[in-house]
Amino acid sequence: MTSSVLKSTIDEKTVDQIEGLTPEKRGAARVWHSIGSFVQKKPLGAIGAVVLFAFIGTALLAPQVATHDPDLNNYRERVKPPSAEHWFGTDNFGRDIYSRVIYGARISMSVGIFATLLGTSIGAAAGLFSGFVGGRTDQFMQRVADVMFTIPGLVLAMAIVTMLGPSMFNVILAIAMPRIPDTNRVIRSAVLSVKESLYVDAAHAVGCANWRIMLQHILPNVLAPYIVIASAGLSGAILVESSLSFLGLGVPPPAPSWGRMLSTEGMRFFETATWMAIFPGIFISAAVFGANLFGDALRDVLDPKLRGR
Amino acid sequence: MQTYILRRILLMIPTLLGAVTLIFLIMRLLPGDVALYILGSDESSEMNREALQRIRSELGLDQPLIVQYGEWVWKALRFDFGNSYWTRQPVIEELGRRYPMTASLAFLSLLLGTLIAIPIGVLSAIRQDTFIDYGARIFSIAGLSIPSFWLAILIILGLVHYFRWLPPLDYAPFWVDPWLNFKQLVFPALVTGYRLSAIGARMTRSSVLEVLREDYVRTARAKGARELVVVLKHALKNALLPVITIIGIELLVLFGGLIVVETVFTIPGIGRFLVDAITHRDYPSIQALVFVFAAFVLVINLLVDIVYAILDPRIRYA
pTM of the predicted model, to two decimals? Predict the structure, then answer.
């Protein structure tokens, strides 16, 4: 930890000038340096990243972090307020809410991350292709995106889950779908400007194949907007997952999804058992809050138009 | 300007047709058999094959796909969405009954959201990097992070606890009793409006910050205009353009919020209709609702562009 702090204070040129470093160590030092400067320039973003990684860690280590079996019904312990035994109380089936909320991180994080990756990857591939090829193909693909834009994300996701039936994979698919058109737009416009660069002309001139120009010369240069839109999409994906679960269209029970824990079935208990309503909501908000802070900071760092503001 | 609007309206037709096709494809090509669901059976056994056949022909599901598609598009374009599988009533009548509630809720959310967003955004910009600014930014990020349904639940719990207030069983339409309608919808509208105001405040802040650096603001200050006049008359007026665009885009997000909030507050609007239609696998209603949502989105996008053109004299459409 101390070494990372030390390295982050060295500026990038100095990293290159230090002698006796192997190329690998130099690379590592550069990574530490950029993390260090991110923390310095964007403390809020760093907090967001810490929150986000804490949730991912919780999801991975759920069996170790939880105190009870999240799905174990215990009728003698129904609707009990928070206590030393049940930190967040129990629900109407006597299940330990703390353990359910911890396991719930698995659903939220995996659905959120995989749906974002899936949707933005398809969208980016479409945008890359559409922007590079241009002409009629481009026109056609953008009209398809127009159509997808007209259906609100939650509505589209609801329709898809209804048809495919609720399951983890289908929920991921349904949440990924609305991400496609907006990623497509952003990447396409980035491709259009990169396409005019001298180095792309040069690649054409030396006879590079089109696919190679697309993948080796254009793709790396539209990675920044891709990271920005993907990280911005994560918070949205977590929110949509919780809304779908709330409406009964998420990952099916007894999986402890945060949204489902707040669904209308529990409503009649909430009035007397407020803890049932409070803890899952805090977890959703905290996860989305972390993702938002991190996404905003990444955007500020990576978007050249916003630099220095 | 007129030709621009006309062209935009004409361009809406293919997009809407595309949306209609997309819904049809989702509803018909993805696996899932309506007839089985209506019969309340999970498997098609020898016994109920006849019953299944009858339901399919009753719903026209035994026709070739292309015929079903043609019929659905042709009828949808004349606002005939068929009868609900659930209530057996024409879907269009149900829509007519429910849309005023959603429209007044959406309007109130937009109004409250904008009224909160602009002052907070402006204050945050003119007091940049002070505690007012930090407070306003936390307000915004929280608004983007707290799920609407949870906020709605918390508000109901709070109102029940402190004021013994319950969501009304019967909501009054706006033109019957505007004041009652306002009182009943103000809390749901605050929930959906909060999200809008969070987005609006962020946009207002960055937009005002940008405009405050412009030459004409410096000129206004140099000629001795009061700071209040500089901010409100010179800066805010020009800073509002991107705010309008973003609020227009965010109306899409508002729909998601409306669905959820109508469910929590049991408001008989079209958002709740969609949830009911989905739980009952009421396909004609689902298709009709998605159609209405899509049409609405297109109209709002058009309105945003028109307002934009009116407000910014630099934009001229040939």
Answer: 0.85
